[in-house]
């Protein structure tokens, strides 16, 4: 193999002085996508990418597409006898929103019917408390700039919208379906230039009125990067509002009694403020306030109190913290009018080392009295009950070889039954999953899921995947790309690194801010474990990650290029000195730190992948995949890093850049996902020796 003829990229002599440290940035000109030089360079990269040799691409494409023909089904949201859920049939590009009553069901919203190009996605939906109206949010081309609409459920008629600037907005309906609280950014003309993605506020909107008449309820004068949550109890009496600075693992929290103050001027009472904990509230049908918190309980606990006394000195533990399992959700099953009925139970969802469990408890004292039967050792989604109460709960289930299904548990019989499976029948390859334990650099025990064909042994081409950030857990789940790889003879490993939530909030914090290097050390140790146990060898090992996981593999290839033969780095953060200036970067300094603060600059400077590329090093074969409409992580990170690696690479392993238009960081059409996965798998196969 010979070194590729990389497009020329000028190196400017730009060096910033930050806290006494010279910080070079030779490719800063690539931060401007409208610069003709940038466009010319990107066009040349596209030519290089299209000419790349990707053996087995068509086979991977066909197999991934076939596995995704399983379709999908979502957990229902109930409003009386109406149920709202999503389903995607084998030939559909996007999930479709349905409403069902009894045996009848009909389409409420089909994104492809709205836009035959396939570029429109359904971001979220929320039926009102009676199930007569439904708010939904859509975005186009991957920009995630949600526009909010309201439809009449009976007729399908749009009765409101579009309301723009509603990205990441919850919708909290008041009883009657005539008004709701929601979150909206201020207009661009009302904020400083460059801050258009921030400055959210909570508003009250009355259906049929102009948004100019919306009443601002909350957020004025608070942190510009705040995200807000808002909910209203089923009876309409209680309003709760939460505020988090960016993605910080803590929130402030307030409640208001809407029976004692106007809905457009609620008198908010502080539940917690400036407390280093995450807390959520649920107003029970029994009149109690249920508090889900990690305050003094990094693995989570459920407490109870009265809504009239919501502050922590009044909390009583109902489900205390477990020494090993992480509490993830709960549901209340009370199908009798009598509050203290003996058949009332509390279901509690847990993950034990990322494997789901659901236990049954008494309502009064939280005593464990049973366990919900589950389909296997996998992942259970949120526990969904009927808002009016009942003896049933619905939840999703998936594992490494099972597409997501929806199940129903009946507390009167103690049985779990399949409620709905995905509509497409596909042949899933047989695969064996093992959870292994290894030690990281500092001796910490870390777990990893290793998926392979039953009976295979000896060193095999292997993909190591990781994320390690924001408290997000890498739980077992169906992956068409992973199964296509395993079926072809490879091994797929998922490391459950610090920075994630697999072992609770402390596990997250052990991999953030000053401790971010722990995440990379955990990842290197996972690779070394796979090598020392004979699963693979360095010349057969690839790493893959996206977003924060793109940062992970960027650090992996710069810190330990000797360990990896290939890297797929998708929608990554890589310039950690300037990341706050682009996309939603300013909301993540609570996870990474800020280069504006001397101590935190030191953390970032210690690992920022872009700044650790060195000339004369033989780097792994690397493919960057980025998306032109990504408004979370700007593609400039990958552009600058690709230019730096192409300049520095001493070997002949290729450095490729795959740019894709009209998609973003989140949901996309199935066919676009298939093409992306096929390119990634074929690239890895070609550089790890997998014979497809």
From TrEMBL:
It catalyses: Hydrolysis of Pro-|-Xaa >> Ala-|-Xaa in oligopeptides. Residues 478-689 form the Peptidase S9 prolyl oligopeptidase catalytic domain. Residues 7-421 form the Peptidase S9A N-terminal domain. PROSITE patterns: PRO_ENDOPEP_SER. Pfam families: Peptidase_S9, Peptidase_S9_N. The keyword Hydrolase applies. Residues 9-19 have a biased composition (Basic and acidic residues). Residues 1-34 are annotated as: Disordered. Keywords: Hydrolase, Protease, Serine protease. InterPro entries: AB_hydrolase_fold, Pept_S9_AS, Pept_S9A_N, Peptidase_S9_cat, Peptidase_S9A, Prolyl_oligopep/macrocyclase. Gene3D superfamilies: alpha/beta hydrolase, Prolyl oligopeptidase, N-terminal domain. Its EC number is 3.4.21.26. Belongs to the peptidase S9A family. This is prolyl oligopeptidase. It comes from Sphaerimonospora cavernae.
């Amino acid at each position: 193999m010979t070194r590729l003829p990389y497009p020329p990229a000028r190196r400017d002599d730009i060096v910033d002085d930050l806290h006494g440290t010279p910080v070079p940035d030779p490719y800063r000109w690539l931060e401007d996508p409208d610069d003709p030089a940038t466009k010319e360079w990107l066009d040349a990269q596209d030519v290089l990418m299209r000419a790349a040799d990707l053996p087995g691409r068509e086979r991977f494409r066909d197999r991934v597409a076939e596995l995704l023909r399983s379709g999908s089904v979502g957990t229902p949201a109930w409003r009386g006898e109406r149920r709202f859920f999503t389903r995607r049939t084998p030939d559909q590009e996007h999930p479709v929103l349905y409403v069902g009553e009894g045996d009848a069901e009909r389409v409420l919203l089909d994104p492809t019917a709205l836009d035959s190009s396939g570029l429109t996605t359904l971001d979220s939906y929320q039926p009102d408390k009676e199930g007569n109206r439904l708010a939904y949010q859509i975005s186009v081309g991957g920009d995630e700039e949600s526009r909010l609409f309201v439809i009449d459920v009976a007729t399908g008629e749009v009765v409101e919208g579009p309301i723009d600037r509603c990205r990441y907005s919850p919708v909290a309906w008041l009883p009657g379906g005539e008004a709701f609280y929601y979150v909206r950014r201020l207009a661009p003309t009302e904020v400083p230039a460059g801050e258009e993605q921030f400055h959210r506020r909570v508003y009250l909107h009355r259906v049929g009125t102009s948004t100019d008449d919306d009443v601002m309820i909350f957020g004025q004068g608070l942190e510009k990067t705040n995200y807000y949550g808002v909910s209203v109890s089923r009876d309409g009496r209680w309003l709760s509002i939460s505020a988090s600075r960016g993605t910080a693992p803590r929130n402030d929290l307030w409640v208001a009694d809407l029976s004692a103050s106007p809905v457009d001027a609620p008198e908010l009472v502080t539940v917690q403020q400036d407390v280093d904990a995450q807390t959520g509230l649920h107003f029970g049908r029994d009149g109690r306030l249920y508090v889900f918190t990690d305050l003094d309980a990094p693995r989570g606990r459920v407490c109870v109190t009265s809504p009239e006394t919501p502050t922590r000195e009044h909390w009583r533990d109902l489900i205390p913290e477990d020494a090993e399992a992480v509490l993830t959700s709960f549901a209340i099953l009370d199908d009798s009018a009598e509050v203290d009925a003996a058949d009332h139970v509390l279901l509690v969802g847990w993950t034990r080392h990322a494997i789901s469990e659901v236990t049954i408890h008494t309502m009064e004292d939280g005593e464990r009295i049973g366990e919900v039967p589950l389909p296997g050792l996998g992942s259970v989604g949120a526990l969904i009950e009927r808002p009016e109460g009942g003896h049933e709960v619905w939840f999703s289930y998936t594992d490494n070889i099972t597409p997501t299904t929806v199940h129903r548990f009946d507390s009167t019989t103690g049985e779990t039954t399949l409620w709905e499976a995905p509509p497409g029948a596909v042949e899933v390859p047989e695969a064996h999953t093992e959870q292994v334990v290894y030690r990281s650099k500092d001796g910490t025990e870390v777990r990893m899921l290793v998926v392979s064909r039953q009976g295979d042994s000896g060193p095999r081409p292997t993909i190591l995947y990781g994320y390690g950030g924001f408290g997000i857990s890498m739980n077992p789940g169906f992956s068409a790309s992973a199964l296509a790889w395993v079926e072809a003879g490879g091994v797929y490993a998922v490391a459950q690194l610090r920075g994630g939530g697999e072992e609770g909030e402390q596990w997250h914090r052990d991999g953030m801010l000053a401790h971010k290097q722990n995440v990379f050390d955990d990842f290197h140790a996972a690779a070394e474990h796979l090598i020392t146990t004979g699963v693979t060898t360095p010349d057969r090992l690839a790493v893959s990650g996206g977003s924060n996981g793109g940062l992970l593999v960027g650090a992996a290839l710069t810190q330990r290029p000797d360990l990896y033969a290939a890297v797929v780095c998708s929608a990554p953060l890589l310039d950690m000195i300037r990341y706050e200036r682009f996309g939603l970067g300013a909301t993540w300094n609570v996870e990474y730190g800020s280069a504006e603060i001397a101590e935190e600059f030191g953390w970032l400077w210690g690992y920022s992948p872009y700044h650790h590329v060195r000339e004369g090093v033989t780097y792994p074969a690397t493919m960057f995949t980025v998306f032109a409409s990504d408004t979370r992580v700007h593609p400039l990170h990958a552009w600058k890093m690709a230019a730096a690696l192409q300049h520095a690479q001493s070997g002949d392993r290729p450095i490729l850049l795959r740019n894709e238009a009209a998609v973003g960081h989140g949901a996309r059409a199935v066919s676009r996902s298939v093409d992306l996965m096929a390119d990634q798998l074929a690239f890895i196969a070609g550089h790890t020796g997998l014979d497809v």
